[in-house]
Amino acid sequence: MATLAELPQVSECTVAGCSYNDHSHCHAGAVTISGEGSEARCATFIPLNVKGGLDTVLASVGACQRADCVHNEHLTCTATAVRVGAGADLADCLTYQPR
After folding, report:
1. How far apart, in whole angstroms, are the C-alpha atoms of residue 87 and residue 92?
2. How far is residue 86 from each of residues 3, 65, 74, measured CA to CA in Å?
């Protein structure tokens, strides 16, 4: 089981309309990945004009509800890093790979 320091970071987020996005970097403390079928979306996405998040922290993947992803082990992401961007939804986990 991974420790908090070992959780994968969100290496890139190209969803400019998210409150946590600051120049393609996610500033949420952690993100949750969810979705159904072939869609793995960032459930932390908030489309507001107000900027949120922490000043210096780059987000980690705190939880992954996509148990069918090759990077998921006991609902924890084991990828080295994840990318979030436009897919089927506004903010998808582009690292998601079905088993």
Report:
1. 6
2. 29, 19, 26
Span 28-54, pLDDT tens digits = 999 999 998 888 999 999 998 888 898
- Rounded to whole angstroms, the Cα distance separating 85 from 24 reads 9
Do the strands 30-34 and 60-64 form a parallel or antiparallel pair, or are they unpaired?
A: parallel
Q: State the DSSP string of the chain.
A: ---GGGSPEEEEE--TTSTTEETTEE-SSEEEEE-STT--EETT----SS--S-SSPPPEEEEE--TTBTTEETTEE-SSEEEEE-SSSSSEETT--B-
pTM: 0.89
Question: How many residues can be counted in the chain?
Answer: 99
- Confidence band (pLDDT; 50, 70, 90) for 5? confident
Q: Report which residue type is found at 48.
A: L
Identify the pLDDT of residue 15.
95
